[in-house]
Design a protein that fits this description.
Blueprint: E1 16-22, E2 25-28, E3 32-46, E4 55-70, H1 74-86, E5 92-99, E6 107-113, E7 116-117, E8 134-141, E9 143-148
Length: 157
């Protein structure tokens, strides 16, 4: 039959781990419920003399993401209190590893550096709620490193 994608090699979204580093202190990001991050290119379009079609050029990039966090950690609020009290903002990095033991493609680990969360929870109560207490926030990052990469599935090597 040849090479084809096996569903067992697709990675389940909940298989993996995340760590957060704040001012050099690395710890398991236990309050993380969900995280998504992307790099968006900044593209200019310009029609040059003698051409009828616009041409495009990448002139920059921006790291953006969103996450849902459980409202259980004083660490996130402490970051923003530090800014409010003395103007300093600690360096934050977030490292995410996707690793599904059922897959033959291995694991992927990326670390996003100079992360800034757009908001953090201060207080949250809701009468009659039976849901877990979470906050959705966007974030930016200025750099990233691809520490580990997936490999081809076993049946395609």
């Amino acid at each position: 039959m040849g090479a084809y994608t096996k569903i067992a090699d697709l990675v389940t979204g909940s298989e993996g781990s995340a760590f957060i580093t704040t001012d050099g202190q690395n710890r398991y990001f236990f309050e993380l419920s969900k995280i998504e991050a992307d790099i968006e290119f900044t593209v200019i379009a310009k029609k040059l003399l003698g051409h009828r079609m616009k041409q495009h050029k990448v002139v920059g990039a921006e790291g953006k993401g969103s996450m849902t966090i459980y409202n259980v950690s004083p660490a996130a609020l402490a970051v923003y209190q530090q800014y409010i009290k003395n103007g300093g903002v600690p360096q934050i990095s977030i490292q995410v590893t996707n690793e599904d033991p059922a897959s033959t493609i291995g694991k992927r680990t990326v670390v996003m550096r100079n992360c800034i969360l757009s908001k953090v929870p201060v207080a949250c109560l809701e009468d009659g709620s039976e849901d877990l207490n979470t906050t959705d926030t966007d974030f930016t990052f200025d750099d990233l490193d691809d520490l580990e990469r997936y490999v081809l599935p076993e049946n395609m090597r």
